[in-house]
Amino acid sequence: MEPARPTPVAAIPQRDLPPPAGPVERDQRWIRIVKSRFTLILYRGNDVEQSYPIAVGRNGGKKLRSGDNRTPEGRFSIEKIHDASSWTHDFGDGKGQIKGAYGPWFIRLKTGWQGIGIHGTHDPLSIGGRVSEGCIRMRNQDVSDLRRRVAPGMLVVIEE
Question: Which end of the chain is more exposed for a tag (fewer CB within 10 A), N or C?
Answer without folding.
Answer: N
